[in-house]
Amino acid sequence: MKQYTYKMGLTKSEIFTEQQNKIALIAKVFGHPARVAILEHLFRINSCVCGDLVDEIGLAQPTISQHLKELKHLGLIKGSIEGTSVCYCINLENWMNMKKVMLVFLDQDISKVNLC
Amino acid sequence: MKQYTYKMGLTKSEIFTEQQNKIALIAKVFGHPARVAILEHLFRINSCVCGDLVDEIGLAQPTISQHLKELKHLGLIKGSIEGTSVCYCINLENWMNMKKVMLVFLDQDISKVNLC
DNA sequence: TTGTTTCATTGCAATATTACGATTAATAAT
DNA sequence: ATTATTAATCGTAATATTGCAATGAAACAA
User: Tens digit of pLDDT for each residue in A54-65?
Assistant: First the structure.
């Protein structure tokens, strides 16, 4: 999964574990409501083109296109060209892998946590 | 949980659902490996002060302090003053609530997803 | 009191993100 | 061939993020 190995700008990625960088890169993509909305829409609707999303979400076409690019970059969606339009959908295999990574982080052992 | 209702800069939060904004705000905080590392450290170690984290993580003290502030802001950690140092720990109740929100998003129904 | 420790805050430079108008590229329709 | 449709890309403005040196504030130690 080379999607998870990007540089993060000013972020000093090299001092963190691969796992920590993975989680951060995934989370960063989820860190915008438009991308959350796009994913939810793709889960609800079977098939989808970019134009639908522009109407559905209410941002300009270049903006949606840019968000789609980031989701594609992480591998969570894939698009297939159909005439003049592009059919985007969830990349299930990568979604499952992503989920696994996030669950390891979210399901941390709380039994030994000290309260202060 | 008023932690989830912040403005997101250029982001047009008003056109998204409260749920979508919640998820994005949580994810944004997880979108930096230092904050992931801090949380993992707080789960591993019972109690913790900022200085420990500076040594542990390898960023300058003001940088760690800033990341701690964001985690505190979302309510995922809380700090209690102990002399000259501050004891930070996980806010378990808020952690559980956060987890619930994220799991609803991650555990979306994949049975009806169309592949393309 | 004077210094020491510890963490927060301020200020700033470098870079990233968000959003959109304008344009381009590619296909489809007439 | 010409025009329409659709989505990607470019360019740019506004804003946010990251990181750290310098400084500040508060509690403790001598």
Answer: 999 999 999 999
pLDDT tens digits, B12-24: 899 999 999 999 9
> Strand, coil or helix: what is B49?
strand
pLDDT of residue A1: 42
| Distance in Å, alpha carbon of B56 to nearest chain A alpha carbon | 10
pLDDT of residue B2: 42
Strands B85-90 and B48-49, by their bridges, are antiparallel
Q: How many Å does it take to go from CA A87 to C1' C28?
A: 16
**CA of B83, C1' of D29: distance in angstroms:** 12
C9 C1' closest Cα residue = B62
Q: Is residue A34 assigned to a domain?
A: yes
Q: What is the pLDDT of residue B1?
A: 42
Tell me the two tokens of residue A40: 């939810």
Report the DSSP pairing between strands B48-49 and A85-90.
unpaired
Q: Domain containing B94 — which CATH number?
A: 1.10.10.10
